[in-house]
Structures are given as structure tokens and as C-alpha cells.
Amino acid sequence: MIITKKSDINLSNLSEGRVLLIDKEKGKTSFNVVSNIRRIFNIKKVGHAGTLDPAATGLLIVALGKKTKEIYKYQDMPKTYTGIITVGKRTPSMDSETEPTEIKSYEYITEPDIEEVRKTFLGEIKQIPPMYSALKHKGKALYKYARKGIDIKREPRTVNIYNFEISKIKLPDISFKIECSKGTYIRVIADDFGQKLNCGGYLTKLRRTQIGNYKVEDALTIEELEKKVSTSKKES
Q1: Residues 85 and 167 in one domain
Q2: Do both 102 and 182 map to the same domain?
């Protein structure tokens, strides 16, 4: 059972499994969402299908009970994101989590320049995972090394960019929509995009709008979910 904004909450036999569409708010980690759902439903077995960075918002698919065994199905689905790349600066984390360390002029950039760079990302591309990520090295997340100024060698990974649209250009901001395969780091695309424009760039806004055919418009915020569960308890 997929629980969306339009669904009623059935609290019986939760251990048999439920799948929730959650609209994660900015500033919360994916683990925060899982913890909140454990508390709301009073169930331990909860997992999510695809991490969203704390600064990102949008669709997170969360499974309860026996449905956690099916998480891989959602993880393998294409993801769609909207966001903003801000050019003229680079940051160590490739997003706004860290302060800019490089600042360059972007005044010379034209719309044809941006279009030419956009085309280079379509199809199968190689990415080097960012140091500011939850990937593990010797059992420790890479971002913990990064915060100490330690750089660990990472091997490039192949990902697929199925669609990449530039929706608005108001320099230094470039708004976009990307549909991609699992494992794609949008922060890396932002950094690479800026590098190809020879002025640097970093991700300043990100929202996941779709996973497979599941859309964020149908997702519940944690607050909305809590109200639904509370109402269901009162009615039962």
C-alpha cells in the first residue's frame, strides 16, 4: 500500500508493511525523517529509498515493516530534480554547505555557452563522488574526512542523464531540471558545469520532484502525516 496525501491511514498490521511518499523539508536529514516516522507509527523497522542532502527538499520514499525488503525497487528508479546552479564561485562541498573558496568573473558567459555545456551532460557520463558525501572509506563517511581537510582518492562512477533542461537564466543563477539514474550527484554536475564554463559553479537549491512515476505533489510532509495518523487514532 502506497500512502499519499489522498490516502487514509490504516494503523492495523503495520508490521506487514506500508510505503509512504514524504516531502522532506529543508534542514532535515533523511535519517531525521526515518526517526520521525518511527516515532509517529511506533515501529522500529523503517527505511528510505535514496538519501536527500539536508539542504535539499522533496520526495523521499519511506518503507515500513515488511515493505523495507522492497526498498531496492524504488532505489533503482530514475530520479527527477529541479534546482539552481550559481556560477562564479566554487565551494568544497559543491553546494552552499561550505563557504566559497574560489571566485571568478562570469560576466562573459552567454546563453549559447550555457547551452553548449548543457549538451555535454546528456547520456552516459562519469562522475567522481564528492568528498562531502556519506560514502564510506574504511567504515567512516567521506564527509568526516573532508571536514578535517583530508582528501581520499575516489574512483569515477558511470551514471546516466536522461534529460537536462535549462528552465531559466538570470546570472549568476541557472535554473534547471534533470532526470537521471540512481547514484547521480547533482552537486557534482553543478561543480562540473561551472568548471566547463571556466568560472566555477555550485548548487544553491535542489528539490527532488519525482522517483519513477511517484511525484512530490502526492507526498505528505511530516507534519501532514502526523495529523493524518492522529486523526486515524481518534476515529479507531
Answers
A1: yes
A2: yes
Evaluate whether 52 touches 61 at the Cβ level (below 8 Å). Answer: no
User: What number is the average pLDDT over the span 131-150?
Assistant: 84
> How far is the C-alpha of 96 from the C-alpha of 197, rounded, in Å?
19
Residues 59 and 148 in one domain: no
The catalytic residue among 53, 95, 191, 192 is 53
- CATH code for position 68: 3.30.2350.10
With a cut of 70, say whether residue 10 has pLDDT above it: yes
Q: What average pLDDT is seen over the chain?
A: 93
Q: Give this prediction's pTM.
A: 0.93
- Count structural domains, the chain: 2
Instruction: Report the alpha-carbon distance of residue 203 to residue 69 in Å, rounded.
Output: 33
Task: Indicate whether 122 pLDDT > 90.
Answer: yes
Closest CA to 100 of 204, 27, 216: 204
Q: Could you give the angle at which helices 111-119 and 186-196 cross, rounded to 10 degrees?
A: 130
Q: Percent of the chain at pLDDT above 70?
A: 100
Question: Where does the pLDDT of residue 131 fall: very low under 50, low under 70, confident under 90, or very high at 90 and above?
Answer: confident
**91 lies in the same domain as 186:** yes
End-to-end Cα distance, the chain: 19
192 is catalytic: no
Whether residues 86 and 174 fall in one domain: yes
Contact present, 188 and 51 (Cβ < 8 Å)? no
